[in-house]
Amino acid sequence: MRQIRATPLGWVIWAVVVFFFVNLAGVVLSVLVSSFGTKWFDTWFPSGFTTQWYGDAWREFTLFHVIVVTLLVSALVVVLSVLVGAPAAYVLARKNFPGKRLVYLTFLLPILMPPITYGIPLATVLYKFGFAGHLSGVVLANLVPSVPFVILTMTPFIEQVDPRIEDAARMLGAGTRAVFLKILAPLLVPGLLASAILVLVRTVGMFELTFLTAGPDSQTLVVALYYSMSAAGIRAQQSVDAMAVIYTGMMLVLLVVALRFVNPTQLVARVKEEPSE
Amino acid sequence: MSGFDQLRLDGVTRRFGAADALVGLDLTIERGEFIALLGPSGCGKSTALNCLAGLLPLTAGAIWQDDQRIDTLPPEKRGFGMVFQNYALFPHLTVRDNIAFGLRMRHLPKDDVRRRTTEAIEMVQLIEHASKLPGQLSGGQQQRVAIARATVLEPTLVLMDEPLSNLDAKLRLEMRTEIRRLHQSLGLTTVYVTHDQEEALSMADRLVVMRQGKVQQIGTPEEVHTKPSTWHVADFMGYRNLLPLKASQMNGDQVTVDLGGTAIRGSAQGAVAPGDDVIAAVRPEDVKLSDQGVKGLVEVVEYQGRERAVEVVLDGGGQDDPVRLHVRTEQRVEAGEQVALTVTPGRLLVYPS
Amino acid sequence: MSATWQHRLAERGVDRRLWLLLPATIFVLLLFVYPFLYGLSLSFQPTDGGGVLANYSKFFSDAYQRDTIATTLKIALPAALLNVLAAVPIAFRLRGRFRGKRLLTTILVVPITLGTVLTAQGLLNYLGPTGWLNRLLLSLHIVDDPIRLTNNYWGVFFSLVITGFPFAFLLVLSYLSGIDPTLERAAATLGASRAQRFRRITLPLLAPGLATTFLLTFVLAFSVFPSAVLVGNPAGSTRVISLAAYQAAYEQYDYSYASAIAMVMGAVELVVVAIVLVWRSRLYTGSTGGKG
């Protein structure tokens, strides 16, 4: 362990970090305090504290339904994206074949493009085929960045498994199915968990795609929150804050769970250079 | 599993992109043989082994097991056993489960699996480690698990890919004997890949020496050791002195070459004619310090226990291109000493260059 | 199939395991490539008629629409640049192991997971005219009137810094820890000063990573949407291009025009990405000697 030495530059850097954190805390705490406050106008703190806004938010925004939808959408996206993404990650990690670069780039593009860019045409197509406005459309749209994300997350985990271990299993008479079920699956549990939890966090937080494809009955929490905010004035500011706190709480729980399985950097992105051919 | 009488490799070729890793390998393996594929790294020996195992598809050629063509079968259908260089043990399975894996894949009755696994564990003396994971074992123990895992199925052919290269020197000697013993007691047919000539010589019935994807020589250890077919093989088999010389006289297969002003007789290997540029090969242990012969100056002395490895610069060589001879001797010599050298008769091999 | 054919295909890596790629490929074709191409062709079939390129000429001839490109870039580029540049010295300082590093990185992840909507709500409360920050500045008599930090350019900018900076920082940190520290020590034994070591050794090895970080941060900032509406001034200074596309689709129900705007948006982003990638390809991108 190393102590950070205090040089002038060091002090400046620490000051910037502290400044950032203080403001961050201000942003988060102001929402939290407001959600518990009775009246808060032009004072340091609300004149009194109450939990009534949570009850209001719960009723007014039908939060129970919204949370159920959020969890359902996220669970479906996680399961489907792992089922579709993991086998593809295996092939991309293990094999060279003609056109691999093109395939890889195609898988990477949905992550590199702003969601709105492909979200609008995607939503149009989903409306055309009658998926949008329902849960199925929201799930399909959210799969678009999730599957590539599973592929990116899983690839390094698969590369860590020595291909010789698979060869050994085949030499002992294991067919492709047995190699996957008896050897690879148990060895890839950490990778599967990591990618599942990352997709879960991202799906709960994904605004744009859900926003573009959700109908009134298929809004996730983040979209419901956006609508309640942009319709401010109709609802009490505090009950919007209460809803935001519920959302934050949900994200923080997920975050704590996620950090048991992955390190913080992985939550941001799994950076992998172009595959070598 | 019924054994085979012969396994025939017929022009087995493997290309990687534009590079030829293995070119036209013809080899017939008899039942019960111990064959070593020997050569420097990148010579194609591991490629050959992987082609045989089915882990690498062939570019051309065929592999026949008696009358059955097997090169299109996937590895799991060939029924061969394999021991990998890094052992490739399943890290999530215990020693017992590693060894039982192949038996379970064949859906044998539970009792059979248990009995044969226990026997195999006893055979490699790992009873007290049976429920450990591979990560908890030493290198030598892991090696023994790998061997037990491959042989418990009584495969028709066992393939070994440099299985001893990750062990320390002492353990390597012990395991050599162990593998040879297993080969004999289980009546296995073994193909063994190594870059260590001593290992190959001491274990194999036949050696296949390879270079740049091509077979250089196939023969018994003695043949390969005493009569390397090319100077490349000689180089690999420990002929450290490879001297570019000129042939002066021929007498049957006896050639006379001029070494540092002294005429020395050697035996011609291949087509050599008087006046040709040749390469003369001799092992350091076949060059002796004596009172007369080729004169030279001791340049470097390495003490190696019982013996000394001595490097001698011959007199009369050019300033910029001195001729050096490597000598092994029990005599005490020191750098800067003037010495004379003779070559043990019959041990100088002369190859066309 | 004959053995020769099977051999030849297998040698090129074409074997049965490639089928595993099929579900993902079908998926990406159906849900990404097809909608994208559909949107592209839709953008050439204007609802109001007027030729293939009518949507595009409509977009570029209308200053109110055209300016969204500049508006977006004016927000996204400085925000991404600031995030990356600020991350470098801080990550450089905090690389290696020290007490509380895990805690620090964990706190940094929080704003990323909170997402833009919650951040926007927090910014409105915190930076608003009666928020804590203005209150503090007023009571310290640093300002006489509350400064306007929300519902304008700065609100959006701060929102991008709050979500983007931790993102950039964590990426730069992981790139930095991938550089073998003995390289710097080697340079020190050769007489390089602290600044020289950073300038000549660390920075060149870090540069490709910085380019990637910039790209990813830029992509995040470029697609800014909720915060532009919530903490920005969506009718004026923060009318970003994604907002224009959204309005065309969901307020005017002109999907053809909306697709055209989405295509322009994608093209502008890809131009920036391409410029950075070309610059990056001229850098050394080999091994950095570390285990990262």
Automatic annotation (TrEMBL), chain A:
Membrane topology summary: Multi-pass membrane protein
Stretches assigned to the ABC transmembrane type-1 domain: 67-258
Protein keywords: Cell inner membrane, Cell membrane, Membrane, Transmembrane, Transmembrane helix, Transport
Gene3D superfamilies (alphabetical): MetI-like
Transmembrane segments annotated in the record for this chain: 12-36, 63-90, 102-127, 139-158, 179-201, 244-262
A GO BP entry: transmembrane transport
Cellular component GO terms, alphabetical: plasma membrane
Subcellular location, record wording: Cell inner membrane; Cell membrane
Domain of life: Bacteria
Family, similarity comment: Belongs to the binding-protein-dependent transport system permease family.
Stated name of the protein: ABC transporter permease subunit
Organism: Kribbella soli
Lineage: Bacteria, Bacillati, Actinomycetota, Actinomycetes, Propionibacteriales
UniProtKB/TrEMBL annotation, chain B:
PANTHER family: MALTODEXTRIN IMPORT ATP-BINDING PROTEIN MSMX, TREHALOSE IMPORT ATP-BINDING PROTEIN SUGC
Keywords noted in UniProt: ATP-binding, Cell membrane, Membrane, Nucleotide-binding, Translocase, Transport
GO cellular component: ATP-binding cassette (ABC) transporter complex, substrate-binding subunit-containing
SMART domains: AAA (SM00382)
Domain ABC transporter: 7-237
Name of a matching Pfam family: ABC_tran
Matching PROSITE patterns: ABC_TRANSPORTER_1, ABC_TRANSPORTER_2
SUPFAM superfamilies in alphabetical order: MOP-like, P-loop containing nucleoside triphosphate hydrolases
GO MF annotations in UniProt: ABC-type transporter activity; ATP binding; ATP hydrolysis activity
Organism from which the protein derives: Kribbella soli
Name of the protein in question: ABC transporter ATP-binding protein
UniProtKB/TrEMBL annotation, chain C:
Family: Belongs to the binding-protein-dependent transport system permease family. CysTW subfamily.
Superkingdom of origin organism: Bacteria
SUPFAM superfamilies assigned to the protein according to its UniProt record, in alphabetical order: MetI-like (SSF161098)
Chief location of this protein within or outside the cell: membrane
Identification of the protein by name: Sugar ABC transporter permease
Keyword Transmembrane helix in record: yes
GO biological process: transmembrane transport
Organism: Kribbella soli
